[in-house]
Amino acid sequence: MIRRAVVVGGAGAVGRLFTDRLLASGVQVTVVDTAEPDGSTGRAARLRGDVTAVDFRLAAELGHADLVVLAVPEPVALKAIRGLAAELRPDALLVDTLSVKGPVARAVRAEAPGVQAVGLNPMFAPSLGFEGRPVAAVVVHAGTRTEELLALVETWGATVVRLDEQRHDRLAAASQTLVHAAVLSFGLALTRLDVPAEDLRAAAPPPANALLALLARIASGTPEVYWDVQHGNPEAAPARKALADAVRRLAETVEHGTQADFTDLLTELRTHLGTDLAHHRDTCAALFARI
Q: Rounded to 10 degrees, what is the CA torsion of 284, 286, 289, 291?
């Protein structure tokens, strides 16, 4: 049973998400961060430390932990893995929360072969919470602790989606990189067309207002998060190229094709949606009823 956890980077949004839920589940949590501890970590114990240069105090915390969560940027996680492997108990579990899983999975296999490890990627903004949302899970080294944690995440209301790292990164590129790129491109096109957002909102149908809402959410967010989505995933460039190619194909069809050609495009899309077509259509109707 997971009784003691260390959350590295627990003062950040993702770290707080896991810290709060672990505390609520009765787990004793110590938050580790290089910054001076503040009150943002609630009831968790706090320790100032650098996971890439483990001192004796941090080593003691790590040695007593059943679970260590790395809610840190990729360079920090990759640099820390070897040192963590030397400090963790044989039955402890190492978790990363990175949005790209390939590099960290390879590093864990190479530098921590005896450590139970799983990569978790909450596929939502931390402020939204786990309930009713997917958490991608890439099991690197399976074990009792791994299964215990995944079961615990499901008690938080999340749906655990198990993937290998290659499929995870490809799906992340499709569900995050591609979507964000489409929304950002919509916004950049508005600036190119010199259409003020307030003018568009006044006359816009629900689809345009939905895109404006998505654009505003991204534009109000942390640039580093969206940069990482676009820059960090090796599958990101092919996703953006596919988007650009799709816009060119649409333009070619409309400007040089026929209505029948356009109908063929929609038929292709309906076929791709398959049995999920009705679900997504009804979801859209429900969303539009609120806009």
A: -60
What pLDDT does 41 receive? 60
Query: Can you tell me whether residue 104 is helix, strand or coil?
Result: helix
Ranges of residues in the chain with a pLDDT under 50 are none
> For residue 171, what pLDDT is reported?
96
Q: In angstroms, rounded to a whole number, what is the distance separating the alpha carbons of residues 40 and 59?
A: 23
Tell me if the domain spanning 4-163 has CATH number 3.40.50.720: yes
User: What's the pLDDT at 38?
Assistant: 62
The dihedral sign for the CA sequence 53, 117, 123, 273: positive
**What secondary structure does DSSP assign to 108-165, as a single string?**
HHHH-TTSEEEEEEESS-GGG-STT-EEEEEEEE--HHHHHHHHHHHHTT-EEEE--H
pLDDT for the residue numbered 137: 98
Cα first-last separation, the chain: 45
